[in-house]
C-alpha cells in the first residue's frame, strides 16, 4: 500500500527518553535492565515496567493535551506483529501503558506483516523496503501511533498511510525512545522538501514513484535528509537497489 502525503499541521513525535547515551548517568531505553526481556523475549510485563520507569511525564501530558485539542477520544495503535512473528513487546507494552494512564483504547485488530526485519536494519534498508499491515480500521476513530524506537520514521509513516487509506485518521505519534530523547519532526519539513526540489529538480517525483512507490511528499524528514546525502540520481538509485536486495 502506497503512502499518503503529510498535512503541514502534523505534530512532532512525542518522545520519552534517549535510545542510548555515552553518559552513564542518563536513563536510556537500551541500558534498562529489562530491555532484553521486553525486546527479545516478548515479555509484555517487562515492557510495561520499562515505560513505568522511563516515561517522561511532561511528554506524556503534552501528548494528552495535544490530542484533547483535536477532539474526541483516540485509539492507540502500535506496529506490532502477531505472537510468533516477533519477539519485541516494547511497542505494544507502551500502547498498553498509555491506555492505562490516559484511558484510551488500544486497537488490537491491525498487525504488521513480518517481511524484512527492521530492528537492526541500516537506514537505507528501511527506506527501500515498505512495512505492510493487515487488519481492520475503525473509520470513525482518530488514532495515535506509538512505537518503541524511532529511527527514520518509515514504519510510522507506513502504518499511518495504511490507517488513512482504510478510512481512519492519524493525529499524533509517540515513542519510548529516539536518539537524544527530544521530540522529532516526522513529516517532511518544508525546508527539507525545498532542498530536495532544488537539488534533484523536476524528475524527483517520477523517480520516487518508480523506485519507492510513492511521491517524495510522503517521505519522512529523516528519509528526505538521507536522500539529500546522495551525490545524485545514480548514487540514490544504487543505494535503493542494494538495500532492497541486501
**What's the CATH architecture of the largest domain?**
3-Layer(aba) Sandwich
Helix content: 40-55%
CATH structural class of the largest domain: Alpha Beta
Mean pLDDT: 93
Which residue ranges are poorly predicted, with pLDDT under 50 across at least 5 consecutive positions?
A: none
Number of strands: 7
Pattern of helices and strands: EHHHEHEEHEEHEHHHH
Radius of gyration: 18 Å
| Content-based structural category | alpha/beta
The rounded distance between the terminal residues' Cα atoms is: 22 Å
CATH topology of the largest domain: Rossmann fold
Form type:
globular
Beta-strand content estimate: 5-15%
Integer tally of domains:
2
Instruction: Give the neighbour order of strands across the main sheet.
Output: 1-7-6-2-3
Main beta sheet:
5 strands, parallel
Question: How many DSSP helices?
Answer: 10
What's the gist of this structure?
The longest helix has 14 residues. The chain is α/β, with parallel strands linked by helices and 246 residues long.
3D structure, described in words:
With 246 residues, the chain is an alpha/beta fold. It has 2 domains: 14-177, Rossmann fold (3-Layer(aba) Sandwich); 190-244, no CATH class. The protein is built from 10 helices and 7 strands. The chain has helices spanning 35-40, 44-54, 57-70, 90-102, 123-128, 154-165, 190-200, 204-211, 221-228, 233-244; strands at 14-17, 75-77, 105-106, 110-112, 133-135, 142-149, 169-177. Helix 2 (44-54) crosses helix 4 and helix 7 (190-200) runs parallel beside helix 9. The two termini are 22 Å apart. The mean pLDDT is 93.
Amino acid at each position: 500500500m502506497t503512502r499518503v502525503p503529510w498535512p503541514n499541521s502534523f505534530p512532532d513525535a512525542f518522545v520519552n527518553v534517549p535510545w542510548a547515551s555515552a553518559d552513564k548517568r542518563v536513563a536510556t531505553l537500551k541500558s534498562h535492565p529489562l530491555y532484553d526481556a521486553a525486546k527479545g523475549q516478548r515479555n509484555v510485563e517487562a515492557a510495561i515496567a520499562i515505560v513505568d520507569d522511563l516515561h517522561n511525564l511532561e511528554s506524556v501530558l503534552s501528548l494528552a493535551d495535544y490530542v484533547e485539542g483535536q477532539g474526541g477520544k483516540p485509539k492507540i495503535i502500535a506496529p506490532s506483529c502477531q505472537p510468533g512473528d516477533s519477539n519485541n513487546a516494547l511497542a505494544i507494552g507502551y500502547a498498553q501503558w498509555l491506555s492505562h494512564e490516559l484511558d484510551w483504547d488500544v486497537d488490537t485488530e491491525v498487525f504488521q506483516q513480518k517481511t524484512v526485519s527492521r530492528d537492526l536494519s541500516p537506514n537505507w534498508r528501511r527506506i527501500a523496503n515498505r512495512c505492510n499491515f493487515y487488519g481492520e480500521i475503525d473509520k470513525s476513530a482518530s488514532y495515535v501511533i506509538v512505537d518503541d524506537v524511532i529511527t527514520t520514521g518509515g514504519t510510522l509513516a507506513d502504518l499511518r498511510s495504511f490507517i488513512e487509506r482504510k478510512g481512519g485518521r492519524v493525529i499524533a505519534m509517540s515513542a519510548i525512545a529516539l536518539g537524544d530523547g527530544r521530540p522529532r519532526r516526522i513529516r517532511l519539513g518544508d525546508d527539507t522538501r525545498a532542498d530536495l526540489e532544488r537539488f534533484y529538480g523536476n524528475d524527483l517525483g517520477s523517480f520516487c514513484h518508480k523506485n519507492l512507490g510513492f511521491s517524495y511528499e510522503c517521505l519522512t524528514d529523516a528519509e528526505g535528509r538521507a536522500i539529500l546525502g546522495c551525490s545524485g540520481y545514480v548514487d540514490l538509485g544504487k543505494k535503493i537497489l542494494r538495500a532492497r536486495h541486501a
